[in-house]
Design goal:
Layout: E1 5-10, H1 17-30, E2 35-39, H2 45-55, H3 64-88, E3 92-96, H4 99-109, H5 113-124, E4 131-136, H6 139-143, H7 159-175, E5 180-184, H8 189-206
Parallel strand pairs: 1-3, 1-4, 2-3, 4-5
Helix pairs in contact: 1-8, 2-3, 3-5, 4-5, 4-7
The structure holds thymidine-5'-phosphate.
Length: 215
């Protein structure tokens, strides 16, 4: 089976992931690679519907277990509908957040680590990223970039809660040094982009085939 490359971006809210995903996608497309850009929660039509339920600020009654299951449901759908087929077609998949987000937000943040791991093994059928870029910026600094009025249900959690989530990211980074590459996200957009390219390029060079073909 031909297999592409699965790259994910992680980081606190306000870390600039979406911008960096877009810039990397533009760069890779210009190089001739076939790139699929997607995001979690969401990405598919069904996933985007679930996303709006998860993030609606009015849904304050949502139980933590429900939250874990809804994120996992989104993930099962995106893996089956988009990510696996794209990888089988040899594409580079760039996903704005993936399982690590559930590990830190629901695992560390809500204290449901075992449940997150168990449920997501089922939801992803064992699919894991080849490389994860962690955009590192303190939780408070990230949140400060998001206007209070526009915050979703998760972004509206307390600063202390977001600090706990960020500590989860740092623990994950330490535990998975091969897969997770941390990048300082306090710099300018173009500085961060250059750092992203430095991390991603060796993977492209190491891949079996050239631009525009299956990796
Ligand atoms: P976004 O703002 O990066 O699109 O992500 C939406 C929010 O959902 C963000 O606050 C992080 C949160 N989230 C989780 O809590 N668990 C997850 O599994 C994912 C994918 C996101």
């Amino acid at each position: 089976m031909t297999r592409g490359l699965f790259l994910t971006f992680e980081g606190p809210d306000g870390s600039g992931k979406s911008t960096q995903v877009r810039m990397l996608a533009e760069h890779l497309t210009q190089q001739g690679y076939a790139v699929l850009v997607t995001r979690e929660p969401g990405g598919t039509d069904i996933g985007e519907q679930i996303r709006s339920v998860i993030l609606r600020p009015e849904n304050t009654a949502m139980a933590p277990v429900t939250e874990v299951l809804l994120y996992a449901a989104c993930r099962a759908q995106i893996v089956q509908e988009l990510i696996r087929p794209a990888l089988e077609a040899g594409q580079i998949v760039l996903c704005d957040r993936f399982l690590d987000s559930s590990v830190v937000y629901q695992g560390y943040g809500r204290g449901l680590l075992d449940a997150v791991n168990g449920i997501n093994a089922f939801a992803t059928d064992g699919l894991a990223p080849d490389l994860t870029i962690l955009l590192k910026i303190g939780a408070q600094a990230g949140l400060a970039r998001i206007r209070e009025k526009t915050r979703d249900r998760i972004e509206s959690e307390s600063a202390a809660w977001h600090e706990q989530v960020y500590a989860g990211y740092l623990a994950l980074e330490q535990a998975n040094p091969e897969r997770i590459r941390g990048i300082d996200a306090n710099g300018s957009v173009s500085e961060v982009h250059d750092a992203v390219l430095r991390v991603v390029s060796p993977l492209l060079d190491a891949s079996a085939s050239g631009a525009g073909e299956a990796l």
